[in-house]
Design a protein that fits this description.
Layout: H1 4-14, H2 18-37, H3 42-51, H4 65-73, H5 77-84, H6 97-117, H7 128-136, H8 146-156, H9 160-173, H10 175-178
Helix pairs in contact: 1-3, 2-3, 2-6, 2-9, 3-5, 4-5, 5-6, 6-8, 6-9, 7-9
Length: 180
Amino acid sequence: MISRDEAQSILTELTKNPSLLRHMRSIELVMRAYARHYNQNEEQWGIAGLLHDADYEAFPEKHPGVIVDKLRSLGENEIAHAISAHYTKWNAPYNNLLDKALLACDELTGFIIACCQVRPDGIGSLEPKSVIKKLKDKSFAAKVERDEVYAGIDKLGVDLADHISFIIRVLKENREELGI
């Protein structure tokens, strides 16, 4: 398996945008926490989170093909597949928990961070009910595809409020690093 340092090197070769880098780091942190929760390979899950959008800035029209091909060339087929499935409209099958978790964490974690950015105390007092209320407001973070959020929780088989609570807890633990 590639190391986290190797994954970080791949990421910084392809991505320079600080906001996108923060997004991928936040997904890495949430995926690592879910790996521990489900007794899965934390390093593998973290790397999937870290690299899931690695080619988006440099090759938006080819995303996620460039990073998927790179990972396959390194023998990282499971991570590559999970990344190829982190958007339902790409019609990749969801073969395992890793695939489902990445889908469930990507869009919603980004949405939760958007919720933090409009609060005076950031993530400090953010509650799941506030996130759920904002999910219903289509004008808030309008680029976030709500159907992807709901597809993710459905595939992972988790309750929306519990999933939001889990993500908030992980983000709170890392709020200084993430700037939220």
